[in-house]
C-alpha cells in the first residue's frame, strides 16, 4: 500500500496529465473544493479558496511559476493550443489560483489579472467601447479614470458624459441610442456618495448597455456587484487584498455573458499580472477578512468621534446614519472599509489650503500618501476641482483618511495634533 508521499506523487502525476487536455481545466476540481465552502463563513472561505495542496505535493501555498515560454509535446498540440498553458500572458498555475479565488468570491464566470487598479478600469472600457459609442461615467469617479475618459477614450472617438451618483433610475433620461457602457463606483471616490446599483443596472440593461463597477472600497467581502446587476466587477487588489502597501495589481471579474469579450480583449492587449504579485495577493486574501473587520470597526469609531468635533464641518462616511445616502449603504452592503473623508471647518476659502496643510504636516502616525488599504493610516488633502456635478463642499477642505491597524487611541491623538496645528493658522 503506498504511503503518503507516493499518494501525493500519484496525485501530482494525474494533475500533470489533466493539464495537457483543454477539456480538463481544473474547473470541476475548483467546484468540488468550493462545494463544502459554499455556505462557510467568509474567513473560512478566504483561508481555503484558490489553492489545492494535493496539486503541489501537499504544500499549503501554490508555487510561484515564473514563465514566458511554455513547451508543447508535438507540432499538432502547438498548432491547436491543445493544452491548458500555452504562453505565460494567458496564465500560469499561480495566476490561475488567484483568479479561481476571486471568481469564488465574486460569483463570476471569469477573472483577469492586470498590473494596477487603473488598468482594471481601462481594460474593460477598451473591451466594450468602440468609436462612435457613448459612455456614462459617475461624476464621483476615481480621478485617473476620469483622466482616461477625457483623454484616451475621447481620442478614440468615444463620447463621454458624467452623471450624478444619486441619479438612480432617473439615469434613463441620460441614455442615448449609442450608450454602450455605464460605469459605477460605490461609494464614490473621496466624497463617498452611494449609488443605487440595481436601479441603474436595470435601466442600463433595458437599453443594451454594459454595467461596470469599481468595487475597491467594499471588496467582494462586503458587496458583490454581479449579485446586484453589474456585469463587470473591478477591484484594485493593490488595496485590501494586498494589505501591505507593496503590490500593484487589479482584478476584473465578469458574468457569463460578458466574460468571453473581456477575456479576448485582455489577450489582445497583452495585459497580464505577474506571478510573484499574484502570489502576494493570494497570500493577502487569507487575512483580508480579519483585517477588514479591524479597518471597519476603527474607521467607524473615528468617524463617529469626528462628528462631535467642532473642528469638523461634516463627516463623509456611508455607514453613519447622518450621511445622505446611508440607507442605500445599509440596504445593499454588508460592511464598510477603512477609508472615509471629513470636511475641515474653515471660515474663509482663502484659508482652506493653509489649514489643510497645517493639519497634515502635524500628523506623526498618519502618512501622507495616495494609496490606501494597507496596514498603515494615511491622510490626503482631496482635490475635487475636476468635478462637473458633485462639487466640492463649501464649508472647508476635504481630508481623506485611511484608518489603518494602529490602536484607535493613538490614531485619535494624532488627529488631535492635526487639529491643534490647523487651529493655530
From TrEMBL:
Catalytic activity: L,L-cystathionine + H2O = L-homocysteine + pyruvate + NH4(+)
Record GO terms (molecular function): cysteine-S-conjugate beta-lyase activity; pyridoxal phosphate binding
InterPro entries tied to this protein: Cys/Met-Metab_PyrdxlP-dep_enz, Cys_b_lyase_bac, PyrdxlP-dep_Trfase, PyrdxlP-dep_Trfase_major, PyrdxlP-dep_Trfase_small
Biological process, per Gene Ontology: L-cysteine catabolic process to pyruvate; transsulfuration
Gene3D superfamilies: Aspartate Aminotransferase, domain 1, Type I PLP-dependent aspartate aminotransferase-like (Major domain)
N6-(pyridoxal phosphate)lysine: residues bearing it: 239
Enzyme Commission identifier(s): 4.4.1.8
Pfam families given in the database record: Cys_Met_Meta_PP
Cofactor requirement: pyridoxal 5'-phosphate
Top-level enzyme category: lyase
SUPFAM superfamilies for the chain: PLP-dependent transferases
Record's keyword terms, sorted: Lyase, Pyridoxal phosphate
Family per record: Belongs to the trans-sulfuration enzymes family.
Database matches in NCBIfam families: cysta_beta_ly_B, PRK05967.1
Protein's UniProt name: Cystathionine beta-lyase
Originating species: Rhizobium favelukesii
Lineage: Bacteria, Pseudomonadati, Pseudomonadota, Alphaproteobacteria, Hyphomicrobiales
Originating gene: metC
Amino acid at each position: 500500500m503506498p504511503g503518503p508521499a507516493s499518494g501525493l506523487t500519484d496525485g501530482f502525476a494525474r494533475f500533470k496529465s489533466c493539464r495537457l487536455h483543454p477539456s480538463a481545466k481544473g474547473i470541476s476540481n475548483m467546484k468540488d473544493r468550493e462545494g463544502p465552502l459554499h455556505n462557510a463563513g467568509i474567513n473560512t472561505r478566504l483561508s481555503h479558496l484558490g489553492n489545492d495542496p494535493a496539486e503541489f505535493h501537499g504544500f499549503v501555498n501554490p508555487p510561484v511559476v515564473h514563465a514566458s515560454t511554455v513547451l508543447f509535446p508535438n507540432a499538432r498540440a502547438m498548432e491547436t493550443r491543445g493544452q491548458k498553458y500555452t504562453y505565460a500572458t494567458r496564465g500560469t498555475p499561480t495566476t490561475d489560483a488567484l483568479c479561481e479565488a476571486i471568481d469564488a468570491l465574486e460569483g463570476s464566470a471569469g477573472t483577469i489579472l492586470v498590473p494596477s487598479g487603473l488598468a482594471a478600469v481601462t481594460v474593460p472600457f477598451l473591451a466594450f467601447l468602440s468609436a462612435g459609442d457613448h459612455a456614462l461615467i459617475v461624476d464621483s469617479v476615481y480621478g485617473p479614470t476620469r483622466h482616461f475618459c477625457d483623454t484616451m477614450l475621447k481620442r478614440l472617438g468615444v463620447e463621454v458624459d458624467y452623471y450624478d451618483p444619486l441619479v438612480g433610475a432617473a439615469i434613463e433620461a441620460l441614455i442615448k441610442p449609442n450608450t454602450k457602457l455605464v460605469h459605477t463606483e460605490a461609494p464614490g471616490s473621496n466624497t463617498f456618495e452611494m449609488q443605487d446599483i440595481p436601479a441603474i443596472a436595470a435601466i442600463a440593461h433595458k437599453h443594451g448597455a454594459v454595467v461596470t463597477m469599481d468595487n475597491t472600497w467594499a471588496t467582494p467581502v462586503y458587496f458583490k456587484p454581479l449579485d446586484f446587476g453589474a456585469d463587470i466587477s473591478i477591484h484594485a487588489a493593490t488595496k485590501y487584498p494586498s494589505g501591505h502597501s507593496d503590490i500593484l495589481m487589479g482584478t476584473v471579474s465578469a458574468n457569463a455573458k460578458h466574460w468571453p469579450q473581456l477575456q479576448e480583449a485582455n489577450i489582445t492587449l497583452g495585459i497580464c499580472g505577474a506571478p510573484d504579485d499574484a502570489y502576494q495577493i493570494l497570500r493577502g486574501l487569507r487575512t483580508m477578512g480579519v483585517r477588514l473587520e479591524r479597518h471597519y470597526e476603527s474607521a467607524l469609531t473615528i468617524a463617529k468621534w469626528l462628528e462631535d468635533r467642532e473642528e469638523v464641518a461634516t463627516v463623509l462616511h456611508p455607514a453613519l446614519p447622518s450621511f445622505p445616502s446611508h440607507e442605500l449603504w445599509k440596504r445593499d452592503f454588508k460592511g464598510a472599509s477603512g477609508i472615509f473623508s471629513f470636511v475641515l471647518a474653515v471660515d474663509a476659502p482663502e484659508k482652506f489650503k493653509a489649514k489643510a496643510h497645517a493639519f497634515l504636516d502635524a500628523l506623526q502616525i498618519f502618512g501622507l500618501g495616495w494609496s490606501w488599504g494597507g496596514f498603515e493610516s494615511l491622510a490626503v488633502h482631496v482635490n475635487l476641482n475636476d468635478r462637473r456635478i458633485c462639487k466640492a463642499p463649501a464649508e472647508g477642505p476635504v481630508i481623506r483618511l485611511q484608518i489603518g491597524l494602529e490602536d484607535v487611541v493613538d490614531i485619535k491623538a494624532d488627529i488631535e495634533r492635526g487639529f491643534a496645528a490647523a487651529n493655530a493658522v
